[in-house]
Amino acid sequence: MAGPVRAGRVVIDGARIGHRGRPLIEELSLVLEPGDFLAIVGPNGSGKTTLLRTILGIIPPLAGSVHCSGPIGYAPQRQELDPIFPFTAREVVAMGLLRPRADDDPEPNPRQLADRIAEALAACGVAALADRPFRDLSGGQRQRVLLARAMVSDPDVLVLDEPTNDLDLAGEHEVMELVSSLNEAGRSVIIVSHMLHVVARHARRIALIHERRIEHGEVGLMLEPARLERLYGIPVAVHELDRGLMVAPCRRRG
């Protein structure tokens, strides 16, 4: 059963998305309503991560505007956290509470912060790993810890960059089921992935990046074989399953 919808709404209006003055995505207008689940899919180098960083406010759009109502939680790609540093899982989750503090902000209560960290670890199923070194965890465990880091600030919008990359089938399934449960609890979700077979089973809407443009809509509409063949340059088959759609490349005839 879905939980109460929170305030997370993202409005992108006529935005040109790029890095260091070089546009990667042109004229994007998109609205993510509270409680929605959007997957952004495109080839490597198409601008997916740059778009996420623009939504997060890390880099500004080259033109147009991007606005988010409500706090955002962000889970980066696992390789962005250098494993050479001996952080525990608990310390990684605590990083999600770090933010600039205004002069009139009250001093944070250490006990309350510790409780929030413990709650986030528990919600993501990694409470037993709190004191384990992050670098010693499996890929799926690391991803759950990063999700806990994103959740510790109690966000209205979850922004996830390739959360299933390099995971085995079991880890991929566990992470996406967790993400879906967080969405069902009322949070908006934006997930970047190049794995159509993963997002097709969980997202409500998909945004496809193709030649510096984004087409977006309901999953069933966007995952049409002709549209996907145009995006990837190979024939693509789409099959209906009990819990959604399966997308797979197929052989060319002749």
Give structural attributes:
single chain; 3-stranded antiparallel β-sheet; 254 residues; globular; alpha/beta; 29% helix; Rossmann fold; 2 domains
Structure commentary:
With 254 residues, the protein is an alpha/beta fold. Helix content is 29%, strand content 29%. The protein has eight helices and eleven strands. It has a six-stranded mixed beta sheet, sandwiched between helices. A three-stranded antiparallel beta sheet has the order 2-1-4, covered by helices on one side. A two-stranded antiparallel sheet has the order 10-11. Helix 3 packs across helix 4 and helix 4 runs parallel beside helix 5.
Give a short overview.
The chain has 254 residues and is α/β, with parallel strands linked by helices. The protein has helices at residues 48-55, 89-94, 110-123, 139-151, 169-184, 196-199, 219-222, 225-232, and strands at 9-19, 22-32, 37-41, 63-69, 72-75, 157-161, 188-193, 205-210, 213-218, 236-241, 244-249. The strands form three sheets. A six-stranded mixed β-sheet has the order 5-6-7-3-8-9, with helices on both faces.
